[in-house]
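Translate structure to sequence.
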């Protein structure tokens, strides 16, 4: 092979290795973000349930409700 062809092949192999590393890094980051989103979604569901339980336990006074014409 000519030196130019060998140089181009070595350059392509180096680029491929760098791209593989970058893809793996991005994949790891996306996986961590997905786990964090799942965790935050579960926490939000728990907070929504707690808020609904608290709201249901608070007595509603007739004085606090709007007048009938509203």
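Result:
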């Amino acid at each position: 092979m000519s030196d130019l062809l060998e140089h181009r092949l070595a350059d392509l192999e180096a680029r491929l290795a760098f791209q593989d590393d970058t893809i793996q890094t991005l994949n790891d980051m996306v996986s961590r973000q997905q786990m964090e989103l799942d965790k935050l979604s579960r926490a939000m569901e728990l907070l929504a349930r707690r808020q609904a339980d608290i709201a249901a336990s608070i007595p509603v006074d007739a004085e606090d409700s709007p007048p009938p014409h509203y």
